[in-house]
């Protein structure tokens, strides 16, 4: 355990302290204590920046389960560091914001900060683990802590619904991811991502490669809310706003992005990867932005916008994989997609974080988030308005904010798809720029809705619960910091490029980085009259036009019937699944022992017959059969007659007597086959059990005593005949294939010399194998005690009587 | 000679056994069946005795004794059951 390991798990350790701090210092908002940790972690992680900038990495191993190859390997490269800085940096700002957002007296702060710290530690673990199983462990920690945070106001129905939904979907993805990891382990023989990447060439030819890729992608897509798994994210907006800002914009939803980026060196050579990641990403971008326009809840808009932006980053990562196929180009033009992905990842975290905080402020100061009730807040909240404008226009990709730059690079990446001549991208690839462009138009529209419907227009004081006013300064600090980052990155993107973006890109595409070189990542503001610029101009033009005409075309959203929306499919699927499981269980768990016996015997027949046939095990060997005497035939006949007539007996009494006759006949067999001890015991036991049967018969209620022959049921007859046949076949086969000699010679020789007895059966029972006898005695004792207690212990009757 | 006679006897006893079993199955009343069962027990004694002569062993003499006792106890118990409706009566003192 090095300092790095302690840093990763420090939020977990700190979480233990929080309830004590909360109880001990009731007058101080617990958030102030919590704030120290992410700030400390941020400054700790920032010192790694020079190391990764030079293309170096840090790897520290702490042994956990070495015999399984599972060790806590902390690994820092450009990508991990970028995420770690995002997590701790935005984490600090969110904690600061939550201090002013959550009320000290009304809220259960200790719960909130424990969950939040758990989440932070889990996220750090995800992005800084090199071991797949450790990564998975932290991954599930993020799911669980996110579940707890979404359900923070657990007395609300919608919160519980959202928490359950996100839990189901992300854990579903997490489990498939685990399956993918295990497949990777089976192929590569190691859980270490580094080592897997180093043998990716051999893995690619493995038959398990594609299944592993699909499973891992399923995990990434569910976590990062890609179509069609994005449905949990809008419902997760029931969480407190700091949580939404932190988890559902900046960090957790990017865990899937992280996974895709991290696994890119392993999987990205295949065309399937490019099409899956790129295709799902670009469609998610379009679908998310298209749906964001129809939302009326501010957080709903932001949720769908997050979905859409994640789709953007995802599609860039997918398209960036094409660069691997053009290694011969000195100036690899397809690298720009990966570059844009990383850049937009940072930008999105800044502007979306600030937007969520702005929405939280509006909610806090007016009591509603419904855009139909809001309007004209500009004059009441000038600072909030400014931050919102910066965030929203950066999101829409307008200059001079950082979103403009990454959006331009996004267009560049998408347009260059057309130049690719692999994987049929030159034909179907046209979808990428078209969907990207249409999605961007919708992005602009909902960004304008977000700002203009809230801050301009008519002020409607009668619809608001509170009189709106500017938020307290403390609440504004975090969004202002984020908004200023938006502007700073917008004007000076190159302070990021060399320090953070280039190492991250190098981590995503390590095969393109030559030894000793660093990736050139220069982001220029003005790149000339390129197609991208005209695309952006088109976006602005069409966006403003469509925004003006919004009421006219808004009814296209009712084209998709409610029944076919993904949410109702999910809800209906849950209900139908439960109903189907219920009716299935009710169908075969009838509550009648006879049905269960039918199942048991039917399976018995089926499995044994199949085995007999499949293994070719049936054999008849008449070689060592003993001659059959007349007595055996006579007794066997007797036995058959008495047992078959039980079936046709009219009264139960006859059946009992016939059963006794069968038992006595068996003892006759024992006599004939020279087993005096068995014969003795059998006789006595048979007599006793017949007497017991008679006792039962005597106590039957008069109603069920009527004499009726057992009714014939074909199924039962077939099954009983089947069981008889199967057992007979097995007995014959078993007798015919004797594999070893009997061990009874030893007993015969030693029964007198060793054990001083002449009765061999009794010597075996009490001497050679006395242990069995001991426990048979136990069985009898238990039976006797059980009967006694059943007769004597009448708790219910005593109560009734 | 002895062997042939033994086999013949066994056959005869078995035939009577079959007759008894017919009575056991057919009925018509329960006492008929009980008497048949008792006779079957005695027949079994005979069969076991004959068989142990055939097998030339003394090992089954206990079985004969046991069967005698059991047949007696069983028949008495059955008779009591048919007569009184129960076999072990409750003690009146308690």
Task: Please give the structural blueprint.
The complex is a heterodimer of chains A (801) and B (94).
Chain A: H1 3-24, H2 30-46, H3 49-53, E1 58-65, E2 70-76, H4 78-101, H5 109-128, H6 132-150, H7 157-188, H8 193-198, H9 200-203, H10 209-223, H11 232-235, H12 241-250, H13 253-267, H14 271-292, H15 298-320, H16 335-366, H17 382-396, H18 402-416, H19 425-428, H20 431-455, H21 473-491, H22 494-508, H23 531-548, H24 550-553, H25 566-588, H26 593-614, H27 630-648, H28 652-672, H29 676-698, H30 714-736, H31 744-753, H32 760-768, H33 770-792, H34 795-800
Antiparallel strand pairs in A: 1-2
Helix pairs in contact in A: 1-2, 1-5, 2-4, 4-5, 4-12, 4-16, 4-21, 4-22, 5-6, 6-7, 7-10, 10-13, 12-16, 13-15, 14-15, 14-20, 15-16, 15-20, 16-17, 16-18, 16-21, 16-22, 17-18, 17-20, 17-21, 18-20, 18-21, 18-23, 20-23, 26-30, 27-28, 28-29, 32-33
Chain B: H1 2-26, H2 30-55, H3 61-84
Helix pairs in contact in B: 1-2, 2-3
Keywords (chain B): Antiport, Cell membrane, Ion transport, Membrane, Transmembrane, Transmembrane helix, Transport
InterPro entries (chain B): MrpF/PhaF-like
Family (chain B): Belongs to the CPA3 antiporters (TC 2.A.63) subunit F family.
Keywords:
heterodimer; A: 801 residues; mainly alpha; two-stranded antiparallel sheet; 34 helices; 2 strands; 70% helix; 2% strand; elongated; B: 94 residues; 3 helices; 0% strand; flat
Structure commentary:
- The complex is a heterodimer of chains A (801) and B (94).
- Chain A has a two-stranded antiparallel sheet.
- In chain A, 44% of the residues are buried.
- Helices cover 70% and strands 2% of the residues of chain A.
- By secondary structure, chain A is mainly α.
- Chain A is elongated.
- The model of chain A has no long low-confidence stretch (mean pLDDT 85).
- Chain B is built from 3 helices and no strands.
- In chain B, helix 1 runs antiparallel to helix 2 and helix 2 runs antiparallel to helix 3.
- The longest helix of chain B has 26 residues.
- The mean pLDDT of chain B is 84.
- Chains A and B meet through helix 27, helix 28 and helix 29 of A and helix 1, helix 2 and helix 3 of B.
